[in-house]
Each structure stands twice: as structure tokens, then as C-alpha cells.
Amino acid sequence: MRQVRKLTCCLTLMCVLLVTFILYPKPPGCVVDIKYSSPKNAPRSLLEYGFGNVGEGLAHIPYKAKENIARQLARDDCDCEGEETLLDSIVSRSSVTQLEEAFDTVELQEVMQRREREYQHFLQRTRTSADALLIAKANSPLAYPTQGVQVRPMKTILIPGLMLEAKSQHPLKVNLTASLGTFDVAAEVDGVTIEGEGEMRLSLSSSDADNLNRQLQFVTYTNTVFNPNTADTVLFETEGHQARFTIKIRHPVIPKLYNVKNQSGYDISELVTVATKTFLRYDKLRQLISSIRKYYPSVTIVIADDNNETQKIEGAFIEQYFMPFKKGWFAGRNLAVSQVKTKYLLWVDDDFIFAADTRLEKMVDVLERTTLDLVGGSVREVTSYSATFLHKLRVEAGGKDGECLIIEGGYHHAIKGFPNCVVTDATINFFMARTERMQQVGFDPHITRQGHLEFFVDGLGLLHVGSCSDVKVDHASKITLPWKRKSASEKMYHQLRYVRGSEVDGSLQDKLFYFKNRFKCIRYG
Q1: Overall CATH class of domain 260-524
Q2: 200, 221, 408 from 69: Cα distances, Å
């Protein structure tokens, strides 16, 4: 018996050392600053164009405005008043709600400041250099915008950057052709002939290059085919030369801002909700809640529960939601996440235990000061070994048979200003995230018993992920003493969680990767 115990201990030690070698993060190499820049450094995007923006270089050439077209141009000073309708005059009431009136004078000033701060953070997370307006110089000899032109569905804009650089060709002529909208001019310039106003093909001709280019500054595009997220490819041509550019047709991204009051530090109870899913482990769940209350007495805890014989978890700041029996792991995650009202949510398994170094303030600080959407921590086992589960993901083109998913251990680079924090693509099952980003990615409810990496695969390209190894949570012991018999719930949990059989399709994940994500293979690099 003693020899068996020695052999068991040796095998356990070898497994721990092997796992430590494979998963323990290497010292950071490249360090990159991903903190928020000031608003003035955010990429400038010319999404809408007012009539007053034209005229650079050719302002001396007179024009006559076409009022019916100029009034249609998109502006950034919308007015909710509008024109009074016949119905309004009959019922003697206004159809306008001024939202500022919901606040008193003192509160409004504070709310406006908080809203602007949150909005600037939102812009810095969502805008990229691809949104900036770029104009291709007249090397062809056509000048035109190469990116950054956007119109809202069924609205009108001025097209910036159009120009023809040609001096010897007479007469000078350019054509514009679109498929999802029409062209017109917001003003007319003497000496320029215009054909096709209000149509999908517009022709401009003149014997004077300056007059023609002045007229090009007033060319408008109106979207006429409603699709809230598409693009029109415009053909811009002159004799012997063609150029194409795109006009994005889309609604603006509606921000989801969280009204968090100004504070000197981070109020975790106001900023963070703890979310978990429980199944057949009420003893572990109560241990988790007790440990949370030791460090964060008033933080809200949301519980998704798909037990058969349910138990009500009593206590303040606890929300327990019951589901059909065995509804599933990812379905429970969806339910828990859907009920979070705070700016951030912390995901924990029901068998985790908070400790002194479960510092949620560190995670909040990283998310508040960087462009990250999600930051993981480290899970400490009873052996005192801490796992971070860092993985880099990428998809390689695979042709008609599907793409290749490549999974590698490790991270991309360290984060400047945040020791022990790195940027990666997938982290361990203990993480804090922006609530609206988690809800945007969601969890595939087909995955009922086993799954984690699938969420990060679905979020690839949507989630900016990091991990901080010095924020730790303990993992309840899974060691079963030989003389202690398993309870009925423990036996059922083990059977459903770990044993592949009729309850769980062992190849389900592979089938989902193949069909849903169109992968043909997974390679672990």
C-alpha cells in the first residue's frame, strides 16, 4: 500500500512539473503602450460633409447654390424641433422630447461631463486609422478619396477630394457612376456643363480646368437603395483613365455608455457584477459567495442555475435565475451575462474562491486606462501553481475546403505601465470584460457541458484581450480522499462533465468548428 502511495505521489508531481513547464508564462519581451490616447490624437474621420467645407484652393471662383440640394446635405448639428405637422397643430402638442429636461440643472452639468468622458473612451476603442479620410493625389490624373467617405442610409453628402489635373485636353470631361445612389451638385459654377443630375451617372464638362475642379467640389451623393450596412463603389473616369472608390453606407455606431459617477478610486460595487453558472455544486457556490463577501460585501452576484433540485441562495445583492434542468454551460453564461447592468462583469466558475490577491481594482484599472475589452487573471490550484491559460489564435486561408485555426500558447506583447499584464487572444476562465462586448459576442448554447476556447474563437477580431498574472483566484480542491464516498450529485456531475457518452456528443465542438466557423482543421502550434 505504501509503494502505491509513493508511485501516486511521484506521478502527481511529474504532472504538475510538466503542466508548469508548458503553461507558465515566459518573461515579457516586447512592451507596447495600449493606453488611451488623448482625444486630439484619435483618428480623424470625415463621416459627414457640410456645405461650408468646400473651396480649398479655388475659393475665388464664384458659384450659385442649389438650395434644394444644399438643404439635404448631412450636418453635425441636428435639430429635433423639425417642422410642425398638421396633426401637431390639431392636437396642440409637441412631438419632441428634450432629454436634457430629465435632469435638474446641477445634475445635468455633472452628467454631461461623465457622458463626454465615456464617449471619448468609446471613440478611441472603436475608431481606427481605416476611418480617416484619405485623398489620392491626381497622379492618374484623377484625384479622389481612397477611404473614409461615409453616408447614412438615404442621406446626402458632398464627395470630398474630387479633382482632374489636366491642362492640354479640351474640352475637359469627367463622369461618375454609382449603383446604390444618385449624384447631383449643391451649387453650379459658370462655364461647366452638367448632365445626369439626380441620376446614377453624372457628367461634367468644361473648357476651363479650374472651373471644372470648382464644380467637382460641389458634387453630392445621395443613397437611394436602403441597406444599413453596405457600400457603393463609384467609378470616376476621364478620357483614358479610370478610378474607383467606395462610399460606406451605414448608420453610426450607437454607443452604450455606463453612467458611473466621478470618484477618486474605483467603486467595485458600482462598476462590476460577478457572474457565474452553477450545476450540482451548491456547496462550492456557497463557498465562492462567502469568499466574495469577505472582500466585496456589496458587489452584485448573478447566478444562472440549471439544477434539477434547486436551492434558493439567500443574501443581499444576489440574483439567482433558474433554468431548465441541464440546459447547459454556455446557455447559462448567456443568461447570467444578459442580466448584468454594470459597466464591467467578472466571470468566475462556481468552484473558485476569492483571496487577498483577487484584486478586482487592478482589472478595472487596466480596462479603464487601455483599449482592452477583456482582461483575464490567474487561477491558483491547491499545489500553489497558478495557471493563466494564454493562447494566441489566428486563422489561415484554406480555400474551398475551409480555413485553418491555429492555436499557440503564449501572448503577443506586454502592456506598458501594467507590470505582469500582456496582450493575448484567449485567457483562463477567470476574467473581467466590458459588458456590452461580452453581450455582443455571446456564447453558443449548443455547448452544454465542456467549452471555453470556443468563446474566444467567436470573439476573434471583436475582442481585444489581455491577461494579468498577478490577479489571482483560488480553485477549490478537486482531490477526492480515498475514504470519502462521492455524493449522488458529485457522481452525476462527474458523469455529465467528464465522461463522453450519450449525454454529451464528444465530437460536438469539432462539428461546430467545421460548420459554424468554416474551419477544416485545428493545429496546435
Answers
A1: alpha beta
A2: 16, 10, 56
